[in-house]
């Protein structure tokens, strides 16, 4: 059976604050995941949908709104969700006028996605869209918690490194803060290894080899 068809594709989500500078980072993260999932055909459209859905939160809910991007497989469809806490600001399909700088988000999503919608939950609104990947719908996407606990680790490390920052360790990490925390963790581990007589470059090489082997095994 084709390994691309039946490879594991674990649902994932990423909390962030709705600010314009996060959009490019979210697009990069999505592209990396879709490369691992071997879904290059839908990558460009998926990135466009993420940009528009997140921009909709920024423009109509507000800057720095705590938001979550969630991506999963729904049968043969790639499902993209953007969660925000405001159930009053509902996206509407209104054609933007020529020269308009806003109002195009949902129109674009409606044009490129196979289907989209809005779900109202007790504590949040979920705006979602789905893209047909062309995979057989009978394919089972097995969940494997490769990154279980990473959010907690990064948040806890940030809290220790910047103890005077209000909310550090409890507020959702932005992508930029998560990246900085990850770099701090790696640098501190390498310093510790070096202090104990280990070669930092060798450790990095072994970690990269281990990461690639795990990714290959997971994708079979």
Automatic annotation (TrEMBL):
InterPro entries: Anti-sigma-factor_SerPK, HATPase_C_sf, HATPase_dom. Residues 18-122 form the Histidine kinase/HSP90-like ATPase domain. GO terms for molecular function: protein serine/threonine kinase activity. It comes from the Bacteria. The keyword Transmembrane does not apply. The keyword Kinase applies. Keywords: Kinase, Serine/threonine-protein kinase, Transferase. Coiled coil: none annotated. SUPFAM superfamilies: ATPase domain of HSP90 chaperone/DNA topoisomerase II/histidine kinase. PANTHER family: ANTI-SIGMA-F FACTOR RSBW, ANTI-SIGMA-F FACTOR RSBW-RELATED. This is Anti-sigma regulatory factor (Ser/Thr protein kinase). It comes from Streptomyces puniciscabiei. The lineage of its organism: Bacteria, Bacillati, Actinomycetota, Actinomycetes, Kitasatosporales.
